[in-house]
Amino acid sequence: MSRPWPVNALMIKDPLGWMVFSLILLSTWLVFFVAPTEATMGDVQRIVYLHVAVAWGGLAGASVMGCCGVAFLIHKKLAWDYWSQAAGEVGWLCATLTLVSGSAWAHEAWGTWWTWEPRLTASLVLWFIFAGIFLLRSAIDDPVRRARVGGVLALVGMSDIPLVIMATRWFRGVHPVSPAMEPRMRWVLLVTVICYTALFAYLVMRRRRQLEGMELASQLEASAWATCPVPHH
Amino acid sequence: MQARHAVQSLYWLIRKDLQREMRALHAWSSMLLLGLVLAFLVGSQLVLPPEQKAHVIGGLLWLAIFFAGSLACEHSLASERDAGCWQAFALYPVAPSLLFLSKVITTNIALALLELVLVPAFVVLSDVPLAPRPVPLLVVALLGNLGVAAIGTIVSGLTAGLKQRSGLAVLLLLPLVIPVILSAAEATRLLLSGPLDSQWWTWIRLLSVFAAVFTVVGALAFEYVLEE
Amino acid sequence: MDTLHVTYAVAWSAMACFALKLAMANARLSRRLARLEAQARETPPTTEPLTQAA
Questions:
Q1: Which chains pack against B, by 3+ Cβ pairs within 8 A?
Q2: Structural domain of B162
Q3: Residues above pLDDT 90, as percent of chain A
Q4: What is the arithmetic mean of pLDDT over A189-193?
Q5: What is the CA A13 to chain-centroid distance, rounded?
Q6: How far is B115 from chain A (nearest CA, A)?
Q7: Band of the pLDDT at A2, cuts 50, 70, 90?
Q8: CB–CB of A119/A175 below 8 Å?
Q9: Chains in contact with C via at least 3 Cβ–Cβ pairs below 8 Å
Q10: In this structure, are residues A171 and A25 in contact, taking their beta carbons and an 8 Å threshold?
Q11: Global ipTM
């Protein structure tokens, strides 16, 4: 409680936020005006830039959530749980967008919204695991117990993902792994992934700080109640 | 001495669970009944030529095993909480991994019992030849059970004591055991449709990796599941 | 409106919603903290422990 919570809470005044926002604008300009139009699919292929960025964000969010969950189990510091939860929330957002953008792309490329294909199935399972973890977390009030349950589940979920990928890959496969691209496309893709990663990292940082501040506030409230000079009857 | 103590505690822990189950019929009877209902539903809806039936029956059998078995999985640790024995269980003087192992073995017994009922029920009600190859089927069943029981025990420990626990337990369990269900279903399909080739062994390998990974992860993490 | 633009619009609005929700919760939180701080300044903590006071 010694460290005051930094009250630059209004994100509109946060220069870092504006920097991240301008990175997103940059990547948008690159995606829509600089990247060449693909020969067979036309403009719709530009979905791929977003899709790769959010898919990477989802996987990275899941890994950070798993690692921080394990770190909480070892060190018993709630600070690790804030990282874990923040990364998980942003990762879940990314996983949702991966499914949406992938579906839209598949509709144009394969003529169907969904097929039971390894990577699709694996990302759907990842989404379900995220959802289950958050559902269970929201059912627990005690922050320490919630963190412990979240940590164990993140560990179990993260060791499950490689197995899901193996199982579904042996099942059947049509997803492009890493297709040959024109250099300019590859370059735009790289920059886009970096820009969106910056956005996700920023959101995780803000969310983590907020979780910390919320814990601080409830501690302050509890101590205010304890020293409150109200006579009890 | 250490090993003997461990085996003895394991024996008593499992015996206690079985005894309680025999006396009160907490969860296993409803599990068996749900399995029969599912077998009946599948059998009545599955009007297909025999070779197509053999193609889909593996998946349906494993879905039925999962849904009925999730009752036993969920019950395995929640029962300690419901009976007010959680602390006594957690304080039992052996390593947490042994406590985990005892619960996994109990759940395995429940699932084996379920399969003893379900496989004949499937053979009778939907007329598929599951019987001619008992040994490969037994291998698939044993590995699949171990994986489901290991994850089920962890999830049961995490959801025990929550108000919405039964719904949450199944919701958490299903995405986690998808690799088991997929590979067990695929292995069952292959063993119904022809000789056991390298493809069958691939699925068996995946099942064993899954069972091994989750038994180890569960044994390591169980200490944190038990903490109050 | 085609698939490309709809997809990007959906993705951006989802991210914007996330950021907006975060910003609103942040504003609420800083108000709450400021109130707590003011409260703490008004009522200095009692010096004697609670057990004796009761």
A1: A
A2: 2-226
A3: 30
A4: 90
A5: 24
A6: 23
A7: very low
A8: yes
A9: A
A10: no
A11: 0.82
Question: How many domains does chain B fold into?
Answer: 1
Residues of C in contact with A46 (CB under 8 A): 4
Asked if the structure places residue A4 within a domain, the reply is no
To the nearest 10 degrees (0 to 180), the angle between helices A143-171 and A118-138 is: 170
> φ and ψ at A38, to 5 degrees?
-75, 145
B176–A157 C-beta distance less than 8 A: yes
Whether residue A1 is contained in a domain is answered as: no
C15/A93 touch (CB, cutoff 8 Å), yes or no? yes
Render pLDDT for A115-151 as a digit per residue (tens, 0 to 9).
877 778 888 888 998 898 998 888 888 888 899 999 9
The helix/strand count (H/E) of chain C reads as 2, 0
Place of tokens 């599990």: B31
Angle (deg, nearest 10), helices A47-75 and A118-138: 40
CB-CB contact of A130 with B171 (8 Å)? no
Least confident among A168-172, B39-43, C15-19: A168-172
B87-128 pLDDT, tens per residue?
888 888 888 889 999 999 999 999 999 999 998 898 888 877
- C 21-50 residues with CB < 8 A to A: 22-23, 25-27, 29-30, 32-34, 36, 39-40, 43, 45-46, 50
Q: Which domain holds residue A89?
A: 11-32+44-174+185-211
Looking at residue B215, its pLDDT comes to 92
pLDDT in tens, A56-84: 999 899 999 999 999 999 998 999 999 99
Structural domains counted in chain A: 1
Asked if B179 and A170 come within 8 Å (Cβ–Cβ), the reply is no
Q: How many residues does chain B have?
A: 228
Chain A residue with minimal CA distance to C50? A227
Q: Of A129, A155, A164, which has the smallest distance from its Cβ to B221's Cβ?
A: A155
Q: Is residue A228 part of a domain?
A: no
Contacts of A163 in chain B (CB under 8 A): 179, 206, 209-210, 213
Q: What is the value of pTM for the model shown? A: 0.83
Helix (H, G, I), strand (E, B) or coil at A38: strand
| H or E element that contains B149 | helix B134-159
